């Protein structure tokens, strides 16, 4: 685990110890909000309902289940097209139901090859909610990490490029994901990677209330999510997605969560201290290339204003070089 220099107070207003300036060698980040990509507009896309009736689908197998619902692999009887059917029980708690409605709202707005596609949403009289989603036959990057092992730099460059394109689409439409991690990045046999699970995402208005920043998986939260006064007084959420991407790539490269030894899960307090008061994960002592180490450093700047934006990272040599 990263070295903790000082035990924090509950309000997290303790001064940070002085550290060596580790700014990237490349130009500093552009000001936020992010500019829209070329040929993009402010209007959001709406997916059309491609599956008209749940009765048209036959269940093939269970892909996963939990307290609030089940995900099935299904097939449309007429077209033989395969989908993932996510069914949320009507009696789930208020928080889960709120997250599901948020996910439904965002999926209805998005249309990108780098974001999992929604083919239909159904609300049953019983209160159950069913979402017909694009089926990714290789599961998640977390699944692959635990089945085939760590990823090569060339694979990670390809993953980075796709996730950054997905984030560029989302951020340009003022959507912050807030829960980027290996288990929320779906992959198919073609190694196409798509962003999924928008239960804690946020559609931006003018600002994102820092008090609403404690969402998502805390292990992948950026320092400003815990302590916006120190690491991001003008918290906007976009830079938090970049931090989470950086942690995700390090985990896929080394084979375990960067802030803890293999097989160990830190408690919330230790994790918070490591993120806010320890050094960011680094690949400086590994065999990683200079380009990959620098890319990770650009993502894992503790001060959100020093972190690179999506558009800058898309032009980074690690992503653009022919591998």
From TrEMBL:
Residues 57-319 form the Protein kinase domain. Residues 26-38 have a biased composition (Pro residues). Coiled coil: none annotated. Residues 39-48 have a biased composition (Polar residues). GO terms for molecular function: ATP binding; MAP kinase kinase activity; protein serine/threonine kinase activity. Residues 1-50 are annotated as: Disordered. Its EC number is 2.7.12.2. Keywords: ATP-binding, Kinase, Nucleotide-binding, Phosphoprotein, Serine/threonine-protein kinase, Transferase. One of its GO terms (biological process) is response to other organism. It catalyses: L-threonyl-[protein] + ATP = O-phospho-L-threonyl-[protein] + ADP + H(+); L-seryl-[protein] + ATP = O-phospho-L-seryl-[protein] + ADP + H(+); L-tyrosyl-[protein] + ATP = O-phospho-L-tyrosyl-[protein] + ADP + H(+). PROSITE patterns: PROTEIN_KINASE_ATP, PROTEIN_KINASE_DOM, PROTEIN_KINASE_ST. It is an enzyme of class 2 (transferase). InterPro entries: Kinase-like_dom_sf (IPR011009), Prot_kinase_dom (IPR000719), Protein_kinase_ATP_BS (IPR017441), Ser/Thr_kinase_AS (IPR008271). ATP binds at residue 86. It comes from the Eukaryota. Gene3D superfamilies: Phosphorylase Kinase, domain 1 (3.30.200.20), Transferase(Phosphotransferase) domain 1 (1.10.510.10). Belongs to the protein kinase superfamily. STE Ser/Thr protein kinase family. MAP kinase kinase subfamily. PANTHER family: DUAL SPECIFICITY MITOGEN-ACTIVATED PROTEIN KINASE KINASE 5, DUAL SPECIFICITY MITOGEN-ACTIVATED PROTEIN KINASE KINASE 5-RELATED. This is mitogen-activated protein kinase kinase. The lineage of its organism: Eukaryota, Viridiplantae, Streptophyta, Embryophyta, Tracheophyta.
């Amino acid at each position: 685990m990263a070295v903790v220099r000082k035990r924090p107070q509950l309000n997290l207003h303790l001064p940070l110890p002085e550290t060596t300036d580790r700014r990237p060698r490349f130009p500093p980040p552009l000001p936020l909000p992010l500019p829209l990509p070329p040929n993009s507009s402010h209007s959001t896309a709406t997916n059309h309902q491609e599956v008209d009736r749940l009765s048209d689908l036959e269940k093939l197998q269970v892909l996963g289940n939990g307290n609030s619902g089940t995900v099935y692999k299904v097939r449309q009887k007429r077209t033989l097209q395969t989908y993932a059917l996510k069914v949320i029980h009507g009696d789930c708690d208020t928080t889960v139901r709120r997250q599901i409605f948020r996910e439904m709202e965002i999926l209805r707005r998005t249309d990108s090859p780098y974001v999992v596609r929604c083919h239909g949403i159904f609300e049953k009289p019983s209160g159950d909610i069913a979402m017909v989603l694009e089926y990714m036959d290789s599961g998640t990057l977390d699944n692959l990490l635990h089945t085939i092992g760590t990823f090569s730099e060339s694979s990670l460059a390809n993953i980075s490029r796709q996730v950054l394109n997905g984030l560029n689409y989302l951020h340009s439409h003022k959507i912050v994901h807030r829960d980027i991690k290996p288990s929320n990045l779906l992959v198919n046999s073609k190694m196409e990677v798509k962003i999924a699970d928008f239960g804690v995402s946020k559609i931006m208005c003018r600002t994102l209330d820092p008090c609403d920043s404690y969402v998502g998986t805390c292990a992948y939260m950026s320092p400003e999510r815990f302590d916006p006064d120190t690491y991001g007084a003008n918290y906007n959420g976009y830079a938090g997605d970049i931090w989470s991407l950086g942690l995700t790539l390090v985990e896929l490269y080394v084979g375990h969560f960067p802030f803890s030894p293999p097989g160990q899960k830190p408690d919330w307090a230790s994790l918070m201290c490591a993120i806010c008061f320890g050094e960011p994960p680094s690949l400086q002592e590994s065999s990683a290339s200079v380009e990959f180490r620098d890319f990770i450093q650009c993502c894992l700047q503790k001060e959100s204003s020093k972190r690179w934006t999506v558009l800058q990272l898309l032009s980074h040599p690690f992503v653009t070089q022919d591998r």
